[in-house]
Amino acid sequence: MDDLVTDDKRRPDSADRRLMAVNEANWDARTPVHTASDFYGLADEAQALDPARWFAPYEWEDLGELAGRDLVHLQCHLGTETLVLAGKGARATGLDLSGASVAAARELAARQESGPMAGTRYVQANVYDAVEALGEARFDVVYTGKGALCYLPDLDRWAAVVAGLLRPGGMLYLAEFHPLLNSLGPTPTAEAGTPLVLRHDYLAGRGAIRRDATYTYTDGPPVEGARESVEWMHGLGEVVTALTGAGLVIELLREDEELPFPRWPEMVRTESGRWRLPDAAPRIPLLFALRARRPAA
């Protein structure tokens, strides 16, 4: 077992468990909408599992060689990125809260009859229970992000889980939507179109935020059933402090103005195939990437 954290630091309280159960039900309800969506494109597996669809070039540079490395993807949802990481040679495991999402991920993985993706496995568990759910398994790489941290109430506990999953010398790679992105929203005006303004908190401190999740970030019909989700705001300083508090060493922190999809209608496509705000808008970070390592000794 790891020597950086204790089990009690990894376990959320009962109130947080109840709120995360709301998200579990919502993600179960989202899953059939997402599996049928053009956003995920599962009808065309070559498109759905195209590395350029999910990863920026710098992510591969930051991750380095993955062949032969044990990797766990936390909060993996449908497991598309997990399979792409496996396609790079990692022995990949995906973990997600939603049983429906894990079932869909396993179905997609089962269709990969040969090659490096064929051995990918998926586990259903709350991320705070990941160390216990994965048993004795420890990993060279923990990968997570792109809409993951906002569903976690406590980043100190999350960081303790990450540290507990890593072998000595192993690394966390987090590629996540920037807290500034989550704080901005459009405010329509007749004179100026849809300027972006600060509409939501950047920092934590006000507790859980309940949201109407009748429609999700993908195309498709409204969600049937559980239509509420719960989110928590986390600033960049909170992320870094949580990881260093768990004994990890920050090696790299990037801020990026591009997203893998257009968050707002006015965004323009770049030569990389990703999306950014138009030239007339200020250059601001919309995504960040962080690499942290568990010390080897």
Automatic annotation (TrEMBL):
UniProt-listed SUPFAM superfamilies: S-adenosyl-L-methionine-dependent methyltransferases (SSF53335)
Any Gene Ontology biological process: methylation
Methyltransferase type domain segment(s): 73-172
Protein's name according to its UniProt entry: Class I SAM-dependent methyltransferase
Gene Ontology molecular-function annotations: methyltransferase activity
Pfam families per record: Methyltransf_12
Keywords: Methyltransferase, Transferase
